[in-house]
Amino acid sequence: MTTIFLLNYGEDMMTDTQKKLDAVAQNLINKHYKVHKAESVDEARIQILNIIGKDDIVGVGGSLTIRAVNIIEALISRGNKVIQHWLPEATVEEVKEARRQAVRLSDVYLTSTNAITLAGDLINIDTYGNRVAAMIYGPKKVIIVAGYNKIMENTETAFAHIRDKTAVRNAMRLKIDNPKGFCKVATIIYDKPTDTDITIILINNELGF
Description:
Number of helices: 8
Mean pLDDT: 90
Radius of gyration: 16 Å
Order of helices and strands: HHEHEHHEHEEEHEEHEE
Strand order of the largest sheet: 1-10-7-4-2-3
CATH superfamily of the domain at 30-154 and 185-203: NagB/RpiA/CoA transferase-like
CATH class of the domain at 30-154 and 185-203: Alpha Beta
């Protein structure tokens, strides 16, 4: 039986970032995740580099948060092979193949999550399903990086935020008219999938959307 660390889910909880991060971190630990907290993107990048082996193949999901941490450049400079589909001047088929290889061939998958509830549920809506497939049952090791702005009160507010804000901002970023086109696969991860080693890094910073 999992005990949820509540503290105070009232107004004070929602306005005090540190208390919110602490409560979510404890609830994620209770759900069998490895959890690290970082005060900056630089600290988070060091934590990620310490977790990933120098010979590991690293797959990267589509994530502004991951790019904000500048970890891809650090991994490549260190000698890691990195598979990502956000590639300039790539053909559609090359992007599709990179997206599949990142899930199938990687030792470690690096991504963010659309939202984390205060209770520690991971909420995601995907277009292709590659990100959530990797998080649930893909590479043996997964690292999920999230800023405090990804923490939502509950499942309902999380899904509403993803549909009404995240999808809309992504559509604007990519100059796409239909935000609903991003919302094809929805998942709730209530507890760490048994066969996947998942580390969650919570950053005391606003990253992604």
